[in-house]
Amino acid sequence: MGAATTARLAFHYRTATVTTCGRICFNRRKINLSVVFAGQSVSIKQVSDEISLVSFMDFDLGYFDHETCRLEPIENPFGPKVLPMSPE
């Protein structure tokens, strides 16, 4: 991918509202997310030709693959943060 294409994609954002059944309608496709996000807006940022990043507020939820029409989750952004124990 060339620098011009990368620069163009870096600012390609969309906002979608999650339906009551937990889906996002994106380019005539229905993407299952979760009913816990029903009624909330999520952002969709294209990161490559066939991959988009789906985010809620400041949290990245997962990557959407346009070819397989699946959202692959990222590590739980809401999970507990465990710090390593310091040696005594």
SSE topology:
Elements: H1 3-10, E1 13-17, E2 23-26, E3 29-32, E4 41-46, E5 51-56, E6 59-65, E7 70-73
Antiparallel strand pairs: 1-4, 2-3, 4-5, 5-6, 6-7
Q: Bin the strand percentage.
A: 35-45%
Would you tell me the overall average pLDDT?
80
**In the residues, how many domains can be counted?**
1
Low-confidence stretches: 1-11
- Shape category: elongated
Structural notes for this entry:
With 88 residues, the chain is mainly beta. The chain has one domain. Helix content is 9%, strand content 41%. The strands form 2 sheets. The chain has a 5-stranded antiparallel sheet, with no helix packed on it. Strand 4 and strand 5 form a beta hairpin. The longest helix has 8 residues.
Name its key features:
88 residues, mainly beta, 1 helix, disordered N terminus
Summarize the model shown.
The chain is mainly beta.
